[in-house]
Amino acid sequence: MTRALIIVDVQNDFTEGGALGVDGGAAVAAGVSTLLAKHRDAYDLVIASRDWHDADNDNGGHFAQGDAPDFVETWPEHCVAGSTGADYHPDLDTTGVDAHIKKGQGKPAYSAFEGVDDEGRTVSQLLDAHGATEVDVVGIATDYCVRASALDAIEHGRHVRVFTDLVAGVAPDSSERALAELAHAGAALAESSVLDVVAAQSGPEASA
Fold first, then answer.
1. Where is the Isochorismatase-like domain (predicted)?
2. DSSP code of residue 77
3. Which of 152, 160, 173, 176 could form a disulfide with 187 if both were Cys (CB 3.0 to 4.6 A apart)?
C-alpha cells in the first residue's frame, strides 16, 4: 500500500489577513508542518497545491471585475502568480514536499487535480507514477478546494481520508456540508492523531 498526502492551497491569501483569509488557516499551516515533522515517513509522496492566477486578466471570470464578487463563482483578486499572497504560509514547512502544483492559471480551478507541476505533470500522473492508492487530504478551504480535490481523488480511484483537524473552511455550514458530501462519496473522515496510533502500533514495542 502506497500513501500520498495532498496539501491544498495553504497560502497567505487564504489565511488570516489575506485577500480571502479563513479563520483557522494559520493553524492549518502549523498543524500540517507538525504532521510532516512527526510522520513524513508515513508518505511515499507529498504534493502541495497553490492557486496561481494570472495578473493581467480575470482568469476566465474567476476574478470579479466591475461588479462586486458573489463569493460563489466570482472572487476578489487573490493568489496572483509571483505575489506574496500566492506564497505558502510561512508556518507551512515545505521541505518535505515532493511536488508543487500550480492551478488556476488563466481560468477557475478549485481541485489540485486541475493543476500541473513545473514539469507539466498532473496530480493524477504523480499518484500513478508512485502507485499511490491511499490519499490523505488537508488544507484550505474545506468547502471549496479541499472538497473539490478530495472528490477528484475519489473519482480517480483512490481511497481518500480527510483530516478534519487540518482543514479550514470559508463558512461553518458549507464546510459541514462539504465534509458530509465527502463522507457520502466514500472518503474517511478522521483526525491526524490516527497517525500517532499507527506509529505506536508499528513501533518496536509493538513487536516485543
1. 4-191
2. S
3. 160
Whose grid coordinates read 471570470?
61
Task: Indicate which residues carry an active-site annotation.
Answer: 9, 103, 145
Residue ranges and CATH numbers for the domains of the chain are 6-202 (3.40.50.850)
DSSP states of 18-68 as a string?
STT--TTHHHHHHHHHHHHHHHGGG-SEEEEEEE-B-SSS-TTTTB--SSP
Percent of the chain with pLDDT over 70: 97
Q: How many DSSP H helices and E strands does the chain contain?
A: 5, 6
> What are the φ and ψ backbone dihedral angles of 42, each rounded to 5 degrees?
-80, -10
Torsion of CA 202, 197, 94, 120, to 10 degrees: 70
Q: Is this structure's pTM higher than 0.90?
A: yes
Residues 182 and 194: their CA atoms lie apart, in Å, by: 19
Residue pLDDT, tens place only, 178-193: 999 999 999 999 999 9
